[in-house]
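User: Can you fold this complex?
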Amino acid sequence: MDPENSQLKSKGNFRNKYTDALYKWLGDKIFTFVVVGLGATIILVTLGMALVLFFEGSGALTEFGLFGFIKGTTWDPAVQMVFGAWPFMFGTLVTSALALAISFFPALAVAIFSAEYAPGWLAEIIDNLIKLIAAIPSVVIGIWGIFILAPWLRDSIYEPIFFWTEANYPDMLHILGNPMGYGMATATIVLSLMILPYTTALAKDAIKAVPRDQREASWALGSTRWEVIRMAVLPYARGGIMAGAILSLGRAIGETMAVAMLIGNKNTLPFSIFGAGATMPSVIVNEFREAVESLHLSSLMAIGFVLFLIALIVNLSAAYIQRKLSIGGGQVV
Amino acid sequence: MVGLLCISTVVVLLPLVIIMVHVLVEGFSALSYDFFTEELGSPSRAIQGQATGLVHTIIGTIVVDTLALLIAVPIGIGAGMMLSEYPEHPLNPTLRLMNDTLNGMPAILKGLFIFVLIVKPMGTFSGIAGSVALAVVMLPIIARTTESALQSIPWTIRESGLALGIPRWRVVLSTVMPAAKGGLITGILLAFARAAGEAAPLLFTSFGNNYLPNNWYGFIFSPTDTLPQRLYSLAISPYEQWHSMGWAAAIILFLMVIFAFILARLLARDKFKIQA
Amino acid sequence: MKFTLNYLLILFLSFTIISCGGESSEHTPSEDRVSILGAGATFPAPLVTAMADEYRDMTNRRVTVNYQSIGSGGGIRQFMEQTVMFGMSEAFLSEEVMADIESSTGGRAFNLPITLADVVPTYNLPGIEKGLVFSGEVLVEIFLGEIVDWNDPKLVELNPDINLPDRNITVIHRSDGSGTTNVFTSFLSRVSDRWRDTVGFATSVNWPTGIGGNGNEGVAGAVQNTPGAIGYNSLTYAILNNMSYGYVINSSGNIIEPSYEATTEAANIELPDDTRILFTNTPAEYGYPIAGFAWMLVYENMEQNNAISNRNEAEELLNFIIWSITEGQELSESLGFAKIPNSALEKNIAMIRLIKWDGEEIGAELLLQQGLID
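Assistant: Here's the predicted assembly.
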């Protein structure tokens, strides 16, 4: 029994106020503590991941240096024990950038159509379909790619092109590469299909976020519908659209399973159009469980660390573009 | 212009619809009764036409995914609350950046992280390691959707609560949270839909198993089969019989994800604007 | 909504519990059961998993062997990381790894031959069945990317009776670390100095040409899906999947059709005590030249392996190993695997005899129980 408690008993009115304050004050303190703790967990997880990848990869990073590792073009776990990430960075950047280039305008077209032209019911169908498709798991796309898309591409697209080139421009064959169905081209096509719904959804959100008075001002000037979109809506939404595109690029860079199943997995440059290649996530999937030598393993972790840096850069630049380019809004998740 | 946009919309949507049709057709034709009741065993079982299936994989997936939700939901919602209810907190900009980075990070790195953090110290691959890896996939999505769900509740509600002398934590828990319930569940379901399809984080964590474990907690503490990881190994196997099992696994996984997704959309309908 | 979610959760959990409970009622009670985790080479996976099926039936589900095929490199790595109870590899442990393990566990790592790996060149040429003849030198040139057409004169010379098409050769190799690669490249290194100096042999090498498939499965799949492809697979995979495979000329100049007899014949040579030997390009006159052992990897001091938690598990693991090198071998031929020769069985027994748990010789004890030593 401490003296304060006995005092409380004698003054009932004060006790209520006092416990009430305690209830409020302590409750709020605990609540804040828990919530901030949970929030901090996410920060810790992200930083912990970066640290783990860095330390596990430090063997390779000290052996070759960060830039030496990034620039290194040889990945040879057998004879020389030399590891360079460039072939995989190259594969990742080329497939992702091309996938974005292929899917960006179609995605924008769908976004404009469903946001501006389509009647409500149709827009809703398109919207749901797009988001539904974005939810299809990567491995499911992968199995479809292996058994349906790749054989079809090989028979009806790659081989005709290959044989035509062989007949007309035989010198170009090494650029085309072997049309066996698994390779850079197939991986790029699948990637562009996979990020398309994502780009579309983000672009549509940006367009939807354009305020009504922006359009109305343009209508008042006597613009046609297309002119309204071109002059008023798109400039306003461009920050959100561009940021969305960058985020889609990030998705493509990190896409793992479908690419690993379809890219053909070749670790040596040069890559060719139809020929096999590799990306940073695909080489990790293929070799992580298999690496025996410590340097090999730490090189794979180092690739993970570089991938982390790239993801960080992508997100920072998406946020930056969002802020810089947008006039008003265009919210992106 | 309208015509052009219209045509391009059809052209864009067509291949995506074709994927769905293929998966549905191939998947349903590969399903059988044994698929739901038998264990996988060796490939010679499938080749010799003996009973084989993925019952251990289906249960394993349910256990691993459920545990992942149990881990990710409290943390994700807490972080979302911090972003929305304490907008002035000095850690918020960092949290937002770290959360977005985590979200943008390839899932395979999350698998590597958990391998180092849990599998190596534990000395064995386990279902729980897979759950934690999937939870890391879910976390940033839940945090982000929670934030926007809570923010969609007008500040006036909070202010009137505080004005009545109700402490802040009570306001958040008993007024704001129930009001945002639909949005919260939507976010959780979307996170589930995304994580349930991930194979990459599971390859180095839950590892795989050809049989049911010896006891129910074997799903948690020993190597466990999950649909995405099993689907990957079936698809790259050279056996035709396993390919068709792969399609069957694909349709189950697909339906699981789509089910969660549609539920999420129905809940979110005209109440909250939350993006996938 | 909360109710629905809770309901679903309860449904899931009860389903989980019921389905496990239902399984156990007719078999060994669950508390007596033992799970053994192994991982490694993809090549012996069909045999080891079939052995696991058989052994599980034999013991009324008391002992379940969960073998995941992740590649030989993975088998060695996870064995060293001590996340698995036994590893499996088509490459024996290097001196360096053996020394590492000896210093960290105070005992040796044993390489126990469990079956034989035979690697055949597989190809996909519409209309041409198995039986295309290859020499070591021609295989080297194909995999170096120097012979690029199927109707190359060197191939025509070896196969005068076959009408080879004018098609590009697509080389397919393993993308992951693999004992199959080790056996295949060690053969190429032994027939060609050029190969040895530029590419060498290892579980994964820096391939000068071609595309990678993940796992024995991945290569077989890619070969089957690609007309004009050549790859290398184990004979079993080729037979099980109706792939066309070639015959290979051995060091004595004989054309050898791959078969398990020819493979066992290749191993019919003097073995060192630790069985760590590569016998590709075997001197045996009628031996198939691209063959090697697949080894099971275990620690001499089993208590040192983090993945094994008690003596009972260690004993069950040993029982399974002893069964698989004796009675279990009977499964081999029906699955297209070669049995290990008697010389290898003797070396295995000598090694198992030394295996200990906390200094107690459990290996010798179990062998004695089975009447394999006296």
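The first helix of chain A runs from residue 3 to 10. Chain A has 13 helices and two strands.
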